[in-house]
Amino acid sequence: MTTDFLYREEILDHAANPRNWGKMENPSVEIEETNPLCGDEVVLDIILDGEQVREVGFEGAGCAIAIASSSMLTEKMRGKTKKELENLGEKEVLSWFGGSLTSSRRDCALLPLVALKKGLRE
Fold this sequence. Notes:
Blueprint lengths: L2 H14 L12 E6 L6 E9 L2 E10 L2 H14 L4 H5 L3 H6 L7 H19 L1
Antiparallel strand pairs: 1-2, 2-3
Helix pairs in contact: 1-2, 2-5
């Protein structure tokens, strides 16, 4: 099995069965972000325990890349501190896709990260 195939299988699984899907009750932070070029949208809900992410959920509409990226990001977020999340960068998120994204798909993959960074600033 090639690495590209494994990346593709994981992406398809996250797109079809997104983890942490759903609205959180009384989130500490709620961020909505839209990609105006393609119409993808994500709403990220975070419940903090001090500086640490206790719970996270998301809802949204968009392509498989945006949904899969949101799902994968929320899995990485739980238990992390705000400082750790501030250090999460585009390179790491894009690595989840095996580096095989076109420039327009990069924006889809990075949408939840943009939302997260916006939420951390607020």
